[in-house]
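RECORD TYPE: inverse folding
INPUT: structure tokens
STRUCTURE:
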């Protein structure tokens, strides 16, 4: 069988499409099924309609695929700059996808993120089955009215409402289930709605690889993992660290992540320098996932002060038994027991003193770190699904839909 995937160029898969780098860098909910499809002989050819965002100076970006996948993988880039460009290019994208479906006799289309709307429209106009995969919606969308979503966020609105065989939405704390119910009510256009936490690797410790050429890590340090953009909250960590240094608490921090927003990254670096923290903050961009897990696993404790915190990194930290501090922003962590991590109130998003106090207490309390570590591992072992189970479910669903033709 042949398959059509429709997706944006996510930060976690940029090395694969732009550098020919086969290593797993992140976004497992996309990357793991994608890699499994590429290795599965049942999928003779995989077509990817890839939405690539350009900056103001770029006209296009050259793609470079890993050599061993070049015969089985066909990529059709569609370039855009802003959200409205995506909306305006929707008819072209649907026509292009429809052309691929007809020429290659494709029966199943998989859409990812807000551009999965294209998969839904191709299904309507060309009679193929579609599965859509949404990775999270952000707190703002879940609070907007149906009319505002329809007119100001049409791609997201259609991604949640167009007919499909299955709509799979990640439970990342942004209440995608509530948005689904608000937009669809009792209508049954979507046959299966699946709303689950991301998985984890149950054998995560065996997958860790020590990074090369990054220098020595401090003997004790705080790990802060996340791509460099405002949403991931590294500036909150820096503000808290500055307070700790004024208290004569010289705590090293290691930050790891892809440079997603260069402007934000420059602001972060400038602030670290102005606050005199350059000696204590080590930044390592561009590590693979396995290398990133090494930094996380060997930390004294880890922090996550994202706008929403029920992330892959948070779940991976639980699996590794890393003592963690995080903010229950938007009640995104309400389903995680209080005894497995230090849960800060939402007010900590704007109050670095709360963050600094929590860090100082946990940094100095070895017994508390031990209790959190054991409780986190126990919770992960009995409450989080293995990625293999999650991926196999999605691959099996695709094959069933194809065989039912």
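DESIGNED SEQUENCE:
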């Amino acid at each position: 069988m042949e398959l059509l995937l429709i997706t944006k160029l996510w930060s976690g898969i940029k090395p694969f499409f732009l550098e020919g780098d086969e290593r797993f860098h992140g976004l497992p909910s996309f990357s793991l099924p994608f890699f499994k499809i590429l290795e599965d002989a049942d999928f003779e050819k995989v077509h990817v309609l890839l939405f690539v965002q350009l900056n103001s100076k770029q006209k296009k970006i050259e793609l470079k695929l890993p050599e061993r996948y070049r015969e089985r993988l066909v990529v059709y880039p569609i370039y855009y700059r802003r959200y409205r460009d995506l909306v305006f290019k929707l008819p072209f994208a649907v026509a292009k996808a429809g052309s691929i479906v007809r020429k290659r006799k494709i029966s199943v289309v998989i859409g990812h993120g807000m551009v999965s709307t294209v998969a839904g429209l191709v299904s309507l106009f060309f009679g193929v089955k579609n599965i859509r995969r949404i990775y999270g919606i952000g707190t703002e969308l879940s609070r907007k009215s149906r009319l505002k979503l329809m007119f100001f966020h049409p791609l997201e609105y259609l991604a949640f409402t167009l007919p499909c065989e299955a709509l799979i939405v990640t439970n990342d704390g942004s209440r995608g289930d509530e948005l689904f119910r608000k937009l669809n009510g009792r209508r049954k256009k979507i046959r299966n709605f699946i709303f689950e936490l991301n998985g984890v690797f149950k054998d995560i410790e065996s997958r860790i690889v020590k990074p090369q050429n990054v220098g020595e890590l401090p003997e004790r340090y705080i790990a802060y993992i996340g791509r460099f953009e405002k949403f991931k909250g590294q500036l909150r960590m820096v503000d808290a660290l500055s307070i700790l240094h004024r208290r004569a608490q010289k705590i090293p921090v290691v930050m790891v992540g892809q440079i997603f927003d260069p402007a934000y990254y420059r602001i972060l670096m400038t602030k670290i320098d102005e606050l005199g923290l350059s000696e204590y903050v080590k930044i390592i961009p561009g590590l693979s996932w396995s290398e990133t897990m090494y930094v996380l696993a060997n930390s004294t404790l880890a922090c996550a002060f994202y706008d929403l915190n029920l992330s892959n990194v948070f779940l991976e930290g639980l699996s590794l038994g890393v003592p963690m501090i995080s903010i229950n922003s938007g009640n995104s962590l309400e389903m995680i027991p209080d005894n497995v991590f230090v849960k800060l109130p939402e007010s900590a998003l704007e109050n670095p003193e709360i963050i600094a106090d929590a860090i100082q207490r946990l940094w100095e309390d070895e017994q508390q770190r031990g209790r959190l570590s054991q409780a986190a591992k126990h919770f992960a072992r009995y409450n989080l699904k293995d990625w293999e189970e999650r991926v196999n479910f999605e691959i099996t669903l695709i094959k069933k839909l194809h065989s039912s033709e």
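NOTES: The first helix runs from residue 14 to 19.
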